[in-house]
Specification:
Distance between the termini: 13 Å
Largest sheet: none
Helix content: over 70%
Radius of gyration: 24 Å
CATH topology of the largest domain: MetI-like fold
CATH class of the largest domain: Mainly Alpha
Number of helices: 17
Low-confidence stretches: none
Structural class: mainly alpha
CATH superfamily of the largest domain: MetI-like
Mean pLDDT: 82
């Protein structure tokens, strides 16, 4: 019974949060200085055509009625129709998601590889030269704007040195020769056995993932350092040291398992932030993901596309949070007993 009650509470909280998210997205759509009717009919349309289209979209209905219709459509998987492409927004979003997930995952791996070990080293050598050096680098990486760093990387590594290809996801020579079965370009090129296209896709992925990865590495480094310092000064670590355990055993067996829960939470939040916050990076590198899709939709006054993409990202954020909550009992037995 406690398990069923907890599950019911979680479902109720999730559904209420989704409704709140949809309400917030709906209000944003109403507050944005974008006229969806004008975007459809054009500036030179007559007043009669404008009025007919407005009635067709249901914009003459009261606000609560409009929200109810919007909620009903989202429940049935209808995020609206894009004014720019004329296709369902969900279709366009699902086409853009693999590119963003691929970029965000690569950036997250860079962040994990650089951020967590450096945070551990900084905590172990607290207030010493390694710690100070790592803190300076993490502050710099976190403070530098991503769009500026992206432009500098393109200027140095693409224009000046020619080490990596320019903007885009893959060279135009391979763009139409690779069938996108899943939309994940690295997988699709490998499944087709096209190693040259795979290498080209990896080369295009390096700079944008590095820009995002350095920012996530700085974030994870600072958090890991704080968690580790707290763990290293705890009583169970002092007891382990008094028993003569080597320092690496203390860190691996006692400290890391005890910071796993907050670290997993921070990593998940960082990953979702990479997915939703890659707007400028995708725009600079012409990366055909959700960020570029939202940017182009804003410039095109495509309100259904903007609202649909934001709704999708918000729901994705909530789903990831719930998945992380489900992992807690596996990471900490004390949580499973509650």
């Amino acid at each position: 019974m406690p398990v069923i009650k907890r599950l019911g509470n979680n479902v109720a909280i999730f559904l209420s949060t989704v409704v709140g998210l949809l309400c917030f997205t709906f209000l944003i759509g109403k507050l944005l200085p974008i006229d969806p009717v004008l975007a459809i009919v054009g500036e030179h349309a007559s007043a009669d055509v404008y009025a007919q289209e407005k009635a067709k979209l249901g914009l003459n209905d009261p606000i609560p009625t409009q929200f109810f219709h919007y909620l009903e459509k989202v429940v049935h998987g209808d995020l609206g129709t894009s004014i720019t492409t004329g296709k369902p927004v969900l279709h366009d979003v699902l086409l853009a998601v693999p590119a963003t997930v691929e970029l965000g995952t690569a950036a997250m791996l860079i962040g994990l590889v650089l951020g967590i070990p450096s945070g551990i080293v900084a905590a172990v050598y607290r207030n010493k030269i390694p710690d100070r050096l790592i803190r300076v680098l993490s502050i710099f990486s976190h403070a530098v704007p991503g769009f500026w760093l992206g432009l500098i990387f393109l200027l140095i590594f693409y224009l000046e040195l020619g080490w990596v290809p320019g903007p885009g996801r893959i060279d135009i020579a391979y763009q139409y020769s690779i069938p996108l079965k899943t939309g994940f370009l690295l997988y699709d090129t490998l499944s087709e056995g096209d190693i040259a296209a795979f290498k080209d896709a990896v080369a295009h992925l390096i700079l944008p993932s590095l820009v995002l990865g350095l920012a996530s590495a700085a974030y994870l480094c600072r958090l890991t350092r704080g968690y580790m310092i707290e763990a290293l000064t705890s009583e169970y670590v002092t007891t382990a040291r008094m028993k003569g355990m080597p320092e690496h055993v203390v860190i691996l067996r006692h400290c890391l398992p005890n910071i796993a829960v907050p670290l997993v939470t921070s990593t998940a939040l960082c990953y979702v932030h990479l997915i939703e916050g890659a707007v400028l990076t995708e725009t600079i590198f012409t990366w055909p993901g959700l960020g570029l899709y939202i940017t182009q939709s804003i410039f095109s006054a495509d309100l259904p596309a903007v609202m649909g993409a934001v709704t999708f990202i918000g729901i994705f954020y909530l789903v990831v949070n719930k998945l992380v909550d489900a992992l807690y009992p596996l990471l900490d037995a004390r949580i499973a007993k509650k």
